[in-house]
Amino acid sequence: MLIDSHSHLEMPDYNRDLEEVIDRAKASGVGYIFTVGTEKKDWKRALEIVDSHPSIYAILGVHPHNAKEIDHETYPALKKLCQNEKVRAFGEIGLDFYRDHSPREIQQKRFREQIRLAKELRLPIVVHDREAHHETLDILKSEKAEECGGIIHCFSGDYEMAKACMDMDFFISVPGSITYKNAEGYREIIKKIPLESLLIETDAPFLTPVPFRGKRNEPSYIRYTAQKVAEIKKIPFDKVAEVTTENALHVYRLKSG
Ligand SMILES: [Zn+2]
Ligand SMILES: [Zn+2]
Predict the structure, then answer these.
(1) Which of 18, 138, 202, 215 lies 20 to 30 angstroms, CA to CA, from 257?
(2) In the sheet that 170-174 helps form, which strands lie side by side, from edge to edge?
(3) Cα 92 to ligand 1 centre (Å)
(4) Cα 193 to ligand 2 centroid, rounded to whole Å
(5) Quick check: pTM over 0.70?
(6) Would you give per-residue pLDDT tens digits along the chain (257 residues)?
(7) Residue 187 burial by CB count (10 A; 0-12/13-18/19+): exposed, middle or buried?
(8) Ligand closest in space to the Cα of 204
């Protein structure tokens, strides 16, 4: 079994053929999919999807791109929606200094607030960090993020950062870009991270792995990422599937015992 630990099935990219996308994922061995509602307009859609699909779970929060849209109604609304037991984590939250869709100071303030909210809700966090490694780590440390734990999704830092995150009980999640030709340095970093700390994700519809790069991504393609992890670590595909599945079930608290 494989788990796609992070996708965006509520995005309009799937309006036309969502059921087929989900069927293809099942047919290719994907046991669970986690879909991330990143802004107010997507939360309801994410919950609709998980309500009608037993093997799909939700993650809700406000993406750093949308940090500037947070108002006095946002957190009360999220608190309510996160009572749904199919919401397994809070996110994605963090910092994106690549696109800078929201001012950096606002992103940092909202990141801190949402870590506190996740702790209150007793949910692990899903962290988005793009070109803000230093600031992300600073905030995780000063907010004592090890108290909620979680995932650094689409991890793009160096090994030192991975180590610091693992020390705070965070998992490191690997997207399809690990299959890209120019990702040699990235593969070296992932090679050094123990399998016991790794998750795999599609981040669909984005970051489509080779051999489908350039097309829309979907959860069934998670196997190409698993395959690449197996290849660089020189271990069997089944081992990657087994351990990353265990890890995802653990961090999203779906494991009995
Ligand atoms: Zn992200
Ligand atoms: Zn995402």
Answers:
(1) 202
(2) 2-7, 30-37, 56-60, 87-96, 125-130, 150-153, 170-174, 198-200
(3) 6
(4) 21
(5) yes
(6) 999 999 999 999 999 999 999 999 999 999 999 999 999 999 999 999 999 999 999 999 999 999 999 999 999 999 999 999 999 999 999 999 999 999 999 999 999 999 999 999 999 999 999 999 999 999 999 999 999 999 999 999 999 999 999 999 999 999 999 999 999 999 999 999 999 999 999 999 999 999 999 999 999 999 999 999 999 999 999 999 999 999 999 999 998 54
(7) middle
(8) 2
